[in-house]
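Intended use. Records like the one below are meant for learning the mapping from a protein sequence to its folded structure. Do not use them to infer anything beyond what is encoded.
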Amino acid sequence: MKYHLITLGCPKNKVDSDGMEMLLRDAAYLPTESAKQADVLIVNTCGFLEAAKEESIGVLQELGRKKRRNQLLIAAGCLAQRNGDEVLSRVPTVDGLLGTRRWMDVMALIGQLRRGPNQRALQRYSLLGDPEREYTAAVPRPPVLGGSAYLKISDGCNAPCAFCTIPSFKGKLQSRPLDAVVDEATALVGAGAKELVVIAQDSTDYGRDWGEPNSLPRLLAALCNRTSDDLRWIRLMYAYPGHVSDELIEVMASQPKIVPYLDMPLQHGDPRTLRRMRRPSRLEMVYDHVEKLRAAMPDIALRTTFIVGYPGETEEEFQGLLDFVQAIEFDKVGAFQFSPEPGTPSATLPDQVADEVKAERYARLMETQQPISLRKNQAQVGKRLEVLIEGEGEIEGSGEPLLLGRSYRDAPEVDGLVLAPGVSGAPIGAMIEVHINSAMEYDLVGEPLLMETFPSTKETIPLVHL
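Structure written out for the chain above:
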């Protein structure tokens, strides 16, 4: 038996997909890149934004059009939990739904779908359950490919953001037990992870649901102290403004395994817009966070995310955002154009911003950030950075090889790369030292200086300059 699994959306979905894959493999299912050859098709969907929902529906429809008799098509994850009825009506070929906290029941769902007089009489089943279901389950993950793995420490969210649908289908915050998180981290490192990326809807809220709201520093210290030296980087994502405590800054600054990098999505830079978003609106708090972080870790890379075109956003408020970006000078900025999500308070707010205005403001925001990003990258020229190799490519036009990697300043999938032209031979997952000799708005360019010695083979892998 074979399965074909497609993961859409954020890294938190990737973690759940990894769990499903291990359960499928334990049940003697083999992965296949070919949907045509699979006995079971699974799409781990995203339902966060309307565009993500339509992408998920489109992928399901495409698989459904080519689906063979007796082939199962399962919609899993956020969209299945949030809009299961819509999924079934728009994609009649979907056989079953698997909710956000039911991924560990994937084999039970497949079993239910296979029951019946014969496989031609397949019935639809849904395993959605309560989004408040306790989030403690974990299964071994597949071998780590590429040296980096996501480590999900909680699910659900308690924040009241007016634009966000997550609490409606993820439920309230459920933190995983500390020992369970450390055990999974240890297993991931044993499977080859050199970087663990700590994720959650709000990673800094870890432990609040059991009455210990500042538990993240303790968890990070445990991860550092109870994992082997094979783990080189721990990266923290999705911090919430107001939850970045002095204890968190101290443990980040004092633990060598924790890279000086923090992703703190702020969503806007004008207090009036933030109040309508139901987000923390006291910008002095953000300035205080940034000042303390940079004082404790002068080389820290700070990333944030903004929404442009939120209902009621005036030109003055948008200018407030631009002024804020220029004042803070974040190393990395991501941006989204506001999408009115059904069922959220922001969807019915007056003064919705026209699409063309959203697009124009998005472009202006990114144009404002580009010279800041360039200056931040140019400050790295002349430095030696440790780089995690992610693959190889070719320089367009010349066909010259190009080594691709990430420094501590770059999170997987969302940030830039370190490029080494004319170099090949470093395996994916290797960590090498690179001398940075030039910079672009989003990427760095450099020359590798060292090779990686692998403990398992005691062999040094050469880098070949062509």
